[in-house]
Amino acid sequence: MVRGLLWILAAVLLGGIVHLSTVLAMPQAAKQDAYSRLAPLTPVNTMVPLAATKAGAEIMPFMDPAFGAAVCRYDLSSGPLKLIAPVSQAYTSVTFYTRRSVAFYAINDRAAGRRTIELDLMTAAQHAQVPEDEEVTAADRLIIESPTTMGLIVLRALAPEPGLMAMARQALAAATCRIQSQ
């Protein structure tokens, strides 16, 4: 009886270890992650509005049809990136992901407190090289440190009614992300 319970406990423990290791290894083993899916559609360091979502034909899973989206695949190896995104009427958010789809920073129009979300994206090494300017405060210049040199910036604009999607798409089309000129 006890021997049978030990075998069952060992089997459950082994099954738990296999399950946990599979779940943790899946993001590294996935070949069709968001970055790979968007690579043929988007040039590097350029903001590209995505086409409207249709059921069953989404570029990325779980895309909400009430939101317009734009994506910038970034590569910081040639320098820091400047993101400028005008906010839409209803709601605008910007989310930063690493190459392996790990979200590391997000901001929305309410947190930005302005009509434009403007920030600098750079690696920690690039941030260390930025000269300190006594007249520029942290509120004037928002600097985001990326843990990796490559990743995604996803800009979303809400259209609370289907007729307002054109205005949300206008805000997305006006957004830019490009390497800062020295």
Helix and strand layout, with pairings?
Elements: H1 2-29, H2 34-38, E1 47-49, E2 67-75, E3 81-86, E4 92-98, E5 103-108, H3 109-112, E6 116-122, H4 124-128, E7 142-145, E8 150-158, H5 165-173, E9 176-179
Parallel strand pairs: 6-7
Antiparallel strand pairs: 1-2, 2-8, 3-6, 3-9, 4-5, 4-8
SS summary, helix count: 5
CATH first level of the largest domain: Mainly Beta
- Number of extended strands: 9
Quote the distance from N terminus to C terminus: 75 Å
Number of domains: 2
Strand content: 25-35%
Shape field: globular
Overall mean confidence score, pLDDT: 86
**CATH fold annotation of the largest domain:** Immunoglobulin-like
Structural class: alpha+beta
Task: Throw out a few tags for this protein.
single chain, four-stranded mixed sheet, Immunoglobulin-like, alpha+beta, globular, 9 strands, 182 residues, five-stranded antiparallel sheet, 5 helices
Summarize the structure.
The protein is 28% helix and 30% strand. It has helices spanning 2-29, 34-38, 109-112, 124-128, 165-173, and strands spanning 47-49, 67-75, 81-86, 92-98, 103-108, 116-122, 142-145, 150-158, 176-179.
Characterise the protein shown here.
The mean pLDDT is 86. Strands 1-2-8-4-5 form a five-stranded antiparallel beta sheet. A four-stranded mixed beta sheet has the order 7-6-3-9. The protein is built from five helices and nine strands; from the N terminus they run ααβββββαβαββαβ. The protein folds into two domains: 1-30; 34-179, Immunoglobulin-like (Sandwich), CATH 2.60.40. With 182 residues, it is of the alpha+beta class. A hairpin with a 4-residue loop joins β4 (92-98) and β5.
